Amino acid sequence: MEDIRILIADDDKEIRDLLKKYLEREWYKVDVAANGEEALALFDLNIYNLIILDLMMPNVDGIEVCRRLRNKTNVPILMLTAKDHEVDKILGLSIGADDYITKPFSINEVVARIKALMRRFLILGSNCTPREDTLIRFKGLTFDLKKYTVTVRGEEISLTAKELELLKFFASHPEQVFTKTQLFRNVWDKNYIEDDNTVMVHIRKLRKKIEIDPSNPQFIQTIWGIGYKFIGEKDES
Fold first, then answer.
1. How far is the C-alpha of 237 from the C-alpha of 207, rounded, in Å?
2. How far apart are CA 16 and CA 3, in angstroms?
3. Which helix H or strand E contains 8, and what residues bound it?
């Protein structure tokens, strides 16, 4: 198995050193950056499997770094924030972060979150799927499970790792209704949903990318008072 390489960007040296120390104990290769500019420069020089970004950094903050990275890559991004306000969590998720942790945090929780993100990302990107099962086709939408790409009306679109997981789960269970809690448990791999805005933000972002009219969705429909379900006419061609 190839080495897993992680980039940590945080202006707090103690946090950088702590995370680097514990992640290297897990046999990850770790690079560190003290600000957003350093993080972007390192990203252009190396290939990373996961990125940890502090929300508040000098020069270029974590939100802007995340936004720029999302134009280049779909690798998992974990946001660190010293703030505990809902708006910061939603902002981080809305610009492409896959998960967030509020400071002060438990180092064991951070490691567990990283392992969960990496496990899902590596499994979803693996080549172990049988050839005949690598495509999920609906009218106007194709999900290639081997390449992990999504094509909508003939055009390949860019989705974050979490958006890909969410769409794959929906497309694998068409016509089934899921509550926000059920989606959270299956896609985020956690039993307790801290804030149901997490699911809502990702669904809103996903709709903007795959729907012709996000306000009148063709694929991901809201079942009022219950949750969501995926509607799509199978393409057997």
1. 25
2. 20
3. strand 5-9
pLDDT, averaged in runs of 10, over the chain (237 residues): 82 93 90 94 91 89 88 86 64 76 86 83 49 72 82 90 89 88 82 75 94 92 92 71
DSSP annotation string for 178-225: E-HHHHHHHHS--SS-S-THHHHHHHHHHHHHH-SSTTS-SSEEEETT
> Within 10 Å of residue 115's Cβ, how many Cβ atoms?
13
Q: How far apart are CA 83 and CA 103, in angstroms?
A: 7
**Terminal CA-CA length for the chain:** 36
Would you say 13 and 57 are in contact if contact means Cβ atoms under 8 Å apart?
A: no
Which DSSP letter does residue 162 get? Answer: H
Tell me the C-alpha distance between 201 and 93, whole Å: 7
The burial of 149, by beta-carbon neighbours within 10 Å (0-12 exposed, 13-18 middle, 19 or more buried), is given as middle
Are the beta carbons of 49 and 6 closer than 8 angstroms?
yes
Cis check: omega of the bond before 76, within 30 degrees of 0? no
As separate numbers, helices (DSSP H) first and strands (DSSP E) second, the chain gives 8, 12
Strands 220-223 and 227-230, how do they pair? antiparallel
Largest Cα–Cα distance in the chain? 56
Contact between 227 and 182 under an 8 Å Cβ cutoff? The reply is: yes
pTM score, two decimals?
0.60
With tokens 């012709």, the residue in question is: 212
Q: How far is CA 235 from CA 55, 63, 135, 230, 231, in A?
A: 42, 38, 10, 15, 13
Q: Which residues of 94-103 are buried (b: 16+ CB within 10 A; e: fewer)?
A: bbbbbbbbbe
